[in-house]
């Protein structure tokens, strides 16, 4: 991969992102929820941050990644870029960097909006980033499979609902549902966040949670490679 090509694609992608309000909403919505719920003391700062981070990780790495790739395909810019000596790997890497940038930006904004203690700042940010990396390739899969932005939105919904399953474990009184949810990276993240908030984070408490997140990272790489080989970047 050539750094100068990725840098140019990254800059162009950022400029295009701010011109498309349909895409930009994925970035703004989690921060909006943080502003809305930050004054609700009954929920607790840690829970509000966990909730908003979960929502952000279901939207930015998955829905945003899928939509911006599908948008480029819809406008036929991917074909033009590839005809001008830009590889598919460079295009996908630049798009992934854009999404991860907003994972970091959203996480920072939500942290300060909610008003969590700075003692746990680095831990919260690293865990959120780690989970974002683990699920971002699912967004790339959505973009590869989608023909346009509308289909990308529809294809991303199953991934988003799966990642948001921990929100519904308290509403759905089902041991099976809770068991399935416990294997999700977002559920693992919330377990780690709870350990951070209670100052009980150690290997015995969070080791399995980190293993689950890592397993999803490996799984996303495998799934992405399978889909990429079948459909390519410009199907």
Give an overview of the whole structure.
The chain has helices at residues 3-17, 21-37, 45-74, 77-83, 88-114, 121-145, 149-163, 175-181, 185-197, 203-231. By secondary structure, it is mainly α. It has one domain (3-231). Helix 3 packs antiparallel against helix 9 (185-197) and helix 9 (185-197) runs antiparallel to helix 10 (203-231). The two termini are 22 Å apart.
Rg, alpha carbons: 18 Å
Helix/strand-derived category reads mainly alpha
Mean pLDDT: 83
Q: Based on CA inertia axes, which overall geometry fits?
A: globular
Protein topology:
Blueprint: H1 3-17, H2 21-37, H3 45-74, H4 77-83, H5 88-114, H6 121-145, H7 149-163, H8 175-181, H9 185-197, H10 203-231
Helix pairs in contact: 1-5, 2-3, 2-5, 3-5, 3-6, 3-7, 3-9, 5-6, 6-7, 6-9, 6-10, 9-10
């Amino acid at each position: 991969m050539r750094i100068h090509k990725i840098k140019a694609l990254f800059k162009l992608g950022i400029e295009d992102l701010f011109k498309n309000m349909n895409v930009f909403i994925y970035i703004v919505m989690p921060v909006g929820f943080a502003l809305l719920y930050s004054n609700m003391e009954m929920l607790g700062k840690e829970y509000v941050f966990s909730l908003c981070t979960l929502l952000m990780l279901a939207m930015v790495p998955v829905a945003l990644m899928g939509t911006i790739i599908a948008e480029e395909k819809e406008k036929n810019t991917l074909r033009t870029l590839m005809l001008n000596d830009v590889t598919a790997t460079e295009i996908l890497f630049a798009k992934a960097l854009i999404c991860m940038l907003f994972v970091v930006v959203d996480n920072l904004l939500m942290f300060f909006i909610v008003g969590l203690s700075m003692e746990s700042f680095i831990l919260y940010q690293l865990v959120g980033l780690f989970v974002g990396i683990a699920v971002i390739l699912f967004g790339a899969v959505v973009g590869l499979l989608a023909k346009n932005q509308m289909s990308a939105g529809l294809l991303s919904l199953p991934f988003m609902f799966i990642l948001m399953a921990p929100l519904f474990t308290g509403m759905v009184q089902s041991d099976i549902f809770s068991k399935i949810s416990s294997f999700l990276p977002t559920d693992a993240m919330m377990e780690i966040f709870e350990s951070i908030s209670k100052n009980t984070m150690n290997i015995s408490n969070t080791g399995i949670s980190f293993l689950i997140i890592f397993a999803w990272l490996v799984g996303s790489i495998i799934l992405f490679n399978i889909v990429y080989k079948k459909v390519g970047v410009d199907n």
